[in-house]
Amino acid sequence: MNKEQNDKLDEILALTRAANSKIDRLGERVESLDSRLFELEKRMDKLGIKAVAAGGLGGAITAIGIEIIKASLGQ
């Protein structure tokens, strides 16, 4: 091999290493985002349960209120 070929191969190797480093950093970011998304999904699930419970409680209070109004009107 001549000097030009060696220089070109060295340049390709350097570019490959740089690309590999960037891919590794992207992989780390994806893992971080994945774990953050998982935590967010868990929190949203808990929030959904709380919303259903609050909605159920609100519905029960409304139904009781309607029955009290009916009773006070003699129906």
Description:
By secondary structure, the chain is mainly alpha-helical. The longest helix has 71 residues. It is rod-shaped and about 105 Å long. The model has no long low-confidence stretch (mean pLDDT 86). This is Hemolysin XhlA. It comes from Volucribacter amazonae. Keywords: Coiled coil, Membrane, Transmembrane, Transmembrane helix.
Short précis:
This protein is 95% helix and 0% strand.
Topology summary:
Layout: H1 3-73
Organism: Volucribacter amazonae
Keywords: Coiled coil, Membrane, Transmembrane, Transmembrane helix
Protein name: Hemolysin XhlA
What is the straight-line distance between the termini?
103 Å
Largest sheet features: none
In helices, the fraction of residues equals: over 70%
Large-scale geometry: rod-shaped
Q: Tell me, rounded to a whole number, the average pLDDT.
A: 86
Beta-strand residue fraction: under 5%
Structural class: mainly alpha
Number of helices: 1
The low-confidence runs, each spanning 5 or more residues with pLDDT under 50, are none
Which radius of gyration do the C-alpha atoms yield?
A: 32 Å
What is the chain-wise order of helices and strands?
Answer: H
Number of beta-strand segments: 0
